[in-house]
Description:
By secondary structure, the chain is of the alpha+beta class.
Amino acid sequence: MSSHSVLIRIPxxxxxxxxxxxxxxxxxxxSLNVKVTPRVDGTVGxxxxxxxxxxxxxxxxxxxxRALEAxxxxxxxxxxxxxxxxxxxxxVAVGLGSSTAAVLAGILAADxxxxxxxxxxxxxxxxxxxxxxxxxxxxxxxGGFVGGIEGEAALTYRRTLVPENLALEVVVPETVLADKPRxxxxxSQKAESFQRAQELAELFARAGLGGMNLEAPLPPTSEKxxxxxxxxxxxxxxxxxxxxxxxxxxxxxxxxxxxSTGAVEAVRQAFASNGxxxxxxxxxxxxxxxxxxxxxxxDVSVPRxxxxxxxxxxxxxxx
Length: 319
């Protein structure tokens, strides 16, 4: 067993930011922190510290492990086991990018431990096998706000720096989650989402909210069925810029000018009136992403050691 380890830090992200469904995400100052220590006996050990730990697999089905193993296979190596210590300040499976962070953490851990030399395009291609929210991947990688721009040939993304003194309140209902089938937005909704993403980018580029009001929510997009969610999205309060479902939900984002206590309490009450308790968190945006936080440094890079990975014939990337 090797004593060498690598430390990886990935920011949380909130997708569907401001109601721009499937095309806008914001990087948050909360993070997933992973320490990976290779083994040579094929064993996987996982210790998790953070919110909703019961939702985190402790075996090879864990997304961090799967992404790490896939990165090794892509370069022709076999995974020979590792110990993972995971420290997260982000609730799991509520719409704050925990899966995005896990996938990127696994890929970057493989790249740094085994010197795979992965290029940025390869990182995104590999990550997209496990995470379909491409805007979340880019926000987590670069930091800041990432909005989709619909071009004639393909969807492209624009990154905008965000004033880091802004605050996002997030209300997370405490309930057993049940996934609903994920439906793509209708064409009319997609047009509205791209327009919303452009408005948000312009808002952030002005380095202030500038009186913009996005209170009118786009159609609810939660992939989690939670009583009280519809009522929560109808909350209105002075200074509220936008209220929306975070990513796949069921967390509700409350984005406003100044104090948002009234809106947050109203959202919590909407859940409470339906018998659902809810906790609230405050996050701030970050313009630093995984590419900034995980540059190769002498204190974390290690030489390739014999026995950490076994060369395999080149093979198709596992799905």
